[in-house]
Write a structure and sequence with these properties.
- It is built from 20 helices and no strands.
- The chain has 376 residues and is mainly α.
- It has one domain.
- The chain is globular.
């Protein structure tokens, strides 16, 4: 190889570099900065940001057929493996006792899904096909695995912006939700104290719960069965008390490895050509709107329950009816304590939060069934 050929070979990456790639690399750096400096969901944003940087370095071959990221995408995203593995870990972390002790919290979990369907209607009005509109609406659940699962089936071409929006808004919950909470509730409502006198939940009930939920959802909403069954499998590992090694593995090694590869793979789909366009910006805006609508619906329903119960329910727990567990529940409790340091509504908020986790999966399954049936 002569000198000129060597120079050409060494500079071919620079020759293919352009402004679009530079912008996306900057986006990747911003995501990493948010993870490292602000500690906004670092487990998610750091690998997504690094994957975004790698995807925009030209001539690496990593995103080409047979490359590292293409292999990970086919093995973990196209096959839906990564979201399902993550749900096993999430299920192992969730304690459904607050929900089982307060069944009425299911209502708040259902109200917290309103933004999904409201955004679907708006997206259709803006001209998105039904399959894409449904996938965009699911961003409002703030549930990354569910968003990826639905988008992979209905609109794989929109997977990158939908996944990035879902995980980014999940990390920004402490910034997005508090202003909405303060806007829609009064200081007096935020100071409402809720007495926590739960009914004892036996081990039999806790073990039976994941089995019953899997059967019920599987028979009524088959399209939601893959997600709900893995969530319930993880919870069964937790509640059975006889497979502690598997329980700890699901909560640590399994979910960590799956999240790392999922984040890298999602980041690798953020190429400049696919990401820098008006449609992506519109999807991000609609996703934010879906999140806010979910929060608003939960808060308004919480205010309704407050009125119906004569002021016995703090409306803030309605904001925990989204899927982002346990951040949304903790944030609702913290907001109440900001008004009254001795006001402890955490267990009530966690009941609504776990109901929201179930609600988001079921909402995703309903959308899959409706859209598949309509298009089928």
């Amino acid at each position: 190889m002569d000198g000129s050929a060597l120079v050409t070979e060494l500079t071919r990456g620079l020759a293919a570099f352009d402004a679009g790639r530079a912008v996306m690399i900057f986006v990747g750096v911003v995501l990493i900065a948010l993870a490292v400096i602000k500690e906004y969901e670092p487990v998610l944003l750091l690998p997504i940001g690094f994957g975004c940087i790698l995807a925009n370095i030209p001539m690496t071959g990593m995103t080409e057929p047979g490359g590292l990221f293409d292999t990970l995408y086919q093995a973990g995203i196209a096959s839906e493996l990564f979201p399902l593995l993550i749900f096993i870990g999430v299920g192992a972390m969730i304690d459904f006792s607050p929900l089982l002790a307060q069944p009425r919290m299911v209502l708040l979990g259902a109200a917290g899904q309103f933004g999904i369907f409201g955004t679907l209607i708006v997206a259709r009005w803006l001209g998105f096909p039904l399959n894409e509109a449904a996938s965009i609406g699911v961003i409002g659940a703030i549930d990354g695995p569910t968003s990826i699962f639905v988008a992979t089936k209905l609109a794989p071409n929109l997977l990158a912006p939908i996944a990035v929006a879902a995980y980014s808004y999940m990390s920004l919950i402490p910034i997005i939700q508090p202003p909405v909470m303060r806007l829609l509730t009064t200081p007096a409502e935020r100071r409402i104290r809720m007495v926590y006198t739960p009914r004892p939940v036996s081990k039999t009930v806790r073990v039976a719960f994941p089995i019953v939920v899997t059967l019920a959802v599987g028979l009524l909403i088959p399209d939601a069965t893959p997600l709900i069954s893995m969530l319930m499998l993880g919870n069964l590992l937790r509640e059975s008390g006889v497979v502690e090694r598997l329980n700890k593995m699901a909560q640590n090694e399994l979910i960590n490895i799956a999240t790392l590869f999922l984040g890298l793979t999602i980041g690798s789909t953020m190429g400049a050509a696919q990401f820098l366009n008006g449609q992506t910006i519109l999807i991000l805006v609609l996703g934010l709107g879906a999140f806010v609508l979910d929060t608003v619906a939960g808060l308004l329903f919480g205010k309704l329950l407050c009125r119906l119960t004569g002021g016995a329910i703090n409306p803030l727990i309605g904001a925990a009816g989204i899927s982002a567990f346990p951040m949304a529940g903790r944030l609702a409790a913290q907001t109440a304590q900001n008004e009254d340091y001795d006001n402890f509504i955490l267990m009530h908020a966690m009941g609504a939060n776990t109901a929201g986790q179930l609600g988001s999966v079921m909402a995703g399954g309903i959308l899959l069934a409706l859209v598949s049936g309509y298009l089928g």
